[in-house]
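Quick one - inputs below.
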Amino acid sequence: MRVLGIDPGLTRCGVGVVEGMPGRPGKLIGYTVVRSEPDEDISQRLLHLDRSLAELVAAYQPESVAVERVFSQHNARTVMGTAQASAVAILAGARAGLPVQTYTPSEVKAAVTGSGTADKAQVTAMVTKLLKLDAPPKPADAADAIAIAICHIWRGGTRARIQAAALAAARRSSR
Amino acid sequence: MRVLGIDPGLTRCGVGVVEGMPGRPGKLIGYTVVRSEPDEDISQRLLHLDRSLAELVAAYQPESVAVERVFSQHNARTVMGTAQASAVAILAGARAGLPVQTYTPSEVKAAVTGSGTADKAQVTAMVTKLLKLDAPPKPADAADAIAIAICHIWRGGTRARIQAAALAAARRSSR
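Output:
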């Protein structure tokens, strides 16, 4: 399963592509950060992000897209831009006909570090270790995006196993 | 000048198209509300809005798009969805190669009623009067979108006059 993870942001939007299966070490396919300048026009910033993400989805051909969910309790000054960037990120997957899943920051942290309150350094360290990278991915926005992709692979696997078990149980009871 | 105004929202997104010039009564070309269900998947909601707005821009062929700006001090429960819808609205104009302008709610209210603190009923009443409509446009989201388009026409005119005056002054001083 190849997943494109997105850590939405208007100034820096992290993108990480991971291939893997639940319970096995994943493989990092690529990562990047899409940037735009805060003094640029909002319509041009959103358009640049939209085009860049569409190109990345076309280039990496993921089977699904995972996006970090934004909460209003975040920094009020930047939260609106982050929410807008998240809409562009979700659209990038939806427009390509891919399933899009969102995860809370604590779900992502818990998936890769075992703790929902881990800091950025811990997330970067675990991403580096889990994917057996020679050096930590930089900047941190890219590491977060990779962590989101890993979270989706593992959680997706859990969900797939639960669905398979439910299906098997339903088959047994209908015999 | 034909303007497509958008009052962004995820559950109800108002769209109003007005043709006019600064200082003259405008003409209502059309209006609608794009809806999606709160229990639907966020990616499908954003995709529906994206496609609907792209179709409306293609159908009405506006020369510019005006979108109401979202603030984080709004209702915290709905503000994230409104911010996401605003990104889709801004993109609808940008992707069509149109200039996109955003206005604060008080700029819009002041433009049509003379008061930045007017309520929805006053905005609807003034939109009905200004455009000489037989009946007020419904629902209120549509009236707000029409008000945003009127605001853009008038403000655009003000800006155009200021630019023209500045240009004329520059020409005089360079003689």
